[in-house]
Fold each of these.
Amino acid sequence: MHVLLTEVRRLIIGTIAPHAALDPDDKRLRHIVAQLNSVESTLDLIA
């Protein structure tokens, strides 16, 4: 679980966050960020 949690965090920080910063009004990006934050939270509870 810890490895998967690290991968999700790297995806959020390295890929999704920079794109979201460029276009904060993009509905799809906001949805992706919300979903990945939910996954990260769940994995954090499990790990």
Amino acid sequence: MDNEKKIMSITLPDGSIDEVEVLLVFEFKDNHKEYMVYTKNETDDKGNVTIYVASVQRGENDKLSLSGVDSDEEWTRIKDVLRELSKDEEEQ
């Protein structure tokens, strides 16, 4: 298994730059929407790592643009993917 961290810089709306660790990129084949799951390696008060999900749009020169997830239907499908991955990890 590839344990190398994939670090990416993202530019925030205010122009500042965040370094994030990309955990997963996936696409729903039926609607061709792509999503990225990433973390800033922050933890909550229970010690859980906070993860973020963004919709990915590819622009010119394969430049990525991230935006929020718009609909409850999208969120439901994304949560299903994350649950499946979590189950797979627990079984290993």
